[in-house]
Amino acid sequence: MSTAATHNWSPPLPDAPGFEHLVVETPGVRRHVAVIGTGEPVLLLHGFPEHWWQWHAIAPILAEHGYRVICPDLRGSGWTEADDPRLQRETQLGDVLAVLDALEVDRVHVMAHDMGAISGMQLAYAHPERVRAMVQLAVPPGFMDFSPKVMPAFKHMPALIMHRPPRSMRYLFSPEYIARPLTDHELAAYLDVEQRPEVLRSVHLMYRGMVIPVSMQLMSGHFARRRLHPPTLFVFGRRDLAFTEPVVRRISRNHAKRADRVDFAFVDDAAHFITDDAPEAVASLALDWLRREG
Predict the structure, then answer these.
(1) Which of 65, 80, 157, 245 allows an S-S link to 73, with CB 3.0 to 4.6 Å?
(2) Please, what are the domains in the chain?
């Protein structure tokens, strides 16, 4: 494991005061990890097409309240590099475990958004002993009852399966998915890195190798036949058209049979990119849940 001082970041990392930048390396993979704060560890897993900087406004709030916040770039995103571009169903889970082991973290709180929720969910089910409490953002429970009402959440997938460079991911930050338009500076912080070869080649590989197989597990009830042990809070924006409160509560109505302890929260004036729309509200909900359940 090395620090930013020994690594040449290209393009330069977006500005975020207070973070330490590490490289966690195993054969064939060099993982970028941003860390801030001291105390109980909290693992933040970003969504798509974002990276560690998704947490630049949330992680410092958690750190101020006594947490050590760990923000890795998942494989195929940000500044993480892998010799083999292929992604399989649990590739990113393996990377998450490698980061925790390298940082000597036995048990961790987890907060995950969008694509990152796949690895967060896999970690909670496969290694519940390593998860204290979890907050899952903008993604329904793995144990949900599949319903045609959730199909709008998948309508963006065909374009991403067929994605080829040099098309930019900028179109995903549309009013359909985000309530507060991002500034040019914020968009650049997310999208400048998409010109890196590892990111350019990852989009359709990620969806074909990981997202589609996990989606098939969700639809087949794979996780509904297992029990979720770590206490989990599911948070959605009220302007998320794919997962309105009535839909979320309907598909999650059997949670008592499938999970030890869950709850649901809905944030005003926020859509799918809830961490960009309402970072303070997300941080407040997370702090309350981790204190009560973690």
Answers:
(1) 80
(2) 2-293 (3.40.50.1820)
Q: Which residue has the tokens 């992604």?
A: 87
State how far the Cα of 80 lies from the Cα of 72, in Å rounded to an integer: 8
Model pLDDT for residues 148-174, shown as the tens digit of each residue: 888 887 888 888 878 888 888 999 999
Cα atoms in the Cβ-side hemisphere of radius 13 Å centred on 53: 20
Q: Which residues contact 42 (CB under 8 A, 6 or more apart)?
A: 62, 67, 68, 69, 70, 108, 109, 110, 111, 290
Q: What is the pLDDT of residues 212-238, one digit of tens each?
A: 999 999 989 999 999 999 999 999 999
Question: Alpha helices of the chain — where are they, by DSSP H?
Answer: 59-64, 91-102, 116-126, 157-161, 184-191, 197-200, 203-206, 212-220, 245-251, 255-258, 274-277, 279-293
8 A C-beta contact, residue 136 and residue 248: no
Joined together, the tokens standing for residue 54 give 């998704």
- Specify the pTM: 0.95
